[in-house]
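Structure first, sequence second, as always.
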């Protein structure tokens, strides 16, 4: 397949025990939650690396030196452009990440909480973005898992959207449309926040994925 003129941006947090996946950690413990977060991040990076896109950027926050699977994450990041997240709140960091990743291509942004994402699905989203002003994939918890826009200016509306709420996805969709941006919606996915999310996401990942191996080893 020809390379698609799209940048895939992964917004990620170093999986440091005690700081990563705190809601999950309340059940499984800090170390296990960090291991699961690391597995999710690495599976996500593998999918992005396999997608036929022009550029790949990770906007990272946190201290990788203290992260679970730090050596493997550092090795994987060598094939990505890595920028540091900047901004006070998550909404600001997202908007700033779009600006920092922009290199003339439309930007397709995902997080690290949907390890079931595949290179094929990312390719489909990138193709849709080339045909539309924006794409948005809602998450089953009310947020969203993927956002694609053509310019950093289109992502500026994120600054006014309350994040990590049950209506964040719908508010994001409304904010884009209120700014005159036509949005095409793509597949919805579950993201991993609590123990109850694990089984369905693992089924979507496949048995050979890191996420499947690590969550099974944790007894989930």
């Amino acid at each position: 397949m020809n390379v698609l003129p799209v940048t895939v941006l992964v917004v990620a947090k170093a999986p440091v025990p005690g700081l990563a996946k705190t809601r999950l950690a309340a059940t499984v413990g800090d170390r296990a939650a960090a291991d699961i977060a690391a597995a999710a991040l690495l599976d996500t990076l593998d999918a992005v690396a396999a997608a036929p896109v022009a550029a790949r950027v990770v906007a990272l926050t946190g201290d990788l030196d203290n992260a679970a699977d730090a050596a493997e994450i550092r090795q994987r990041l060598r094939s990505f452009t890595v920028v540091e997240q900047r901004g006070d709140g998550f909404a600001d960091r997202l908007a700033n990440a779009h600006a920092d990743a922009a290199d003339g291509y439309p930007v397709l942004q995902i997080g690290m909480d949907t390890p079931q994402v595949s290179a094929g699905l990312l390719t489909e989203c990138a193709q849709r973005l080339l045909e539309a002003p924006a794409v948005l994939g809602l998450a089953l918890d009310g947020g969203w898992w993927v956002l694609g826009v053509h310019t950093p200016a289109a992502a500026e509306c994120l600054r006014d959207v309350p994040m990590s709420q049950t209506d964040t996805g719908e508010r994001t969709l409304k904010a884009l449309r209120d700014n005159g941006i036509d949005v095409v919606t793509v597949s919805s996915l579950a993201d991993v926040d609590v123990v109850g999310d694990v089984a369905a996401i693992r089924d979507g990942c496949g048995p050979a994925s890191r996420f499947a191996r690590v969550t099974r080893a944790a007894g989930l």
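Margin note: The chain is about 40% helix and 20% strand.
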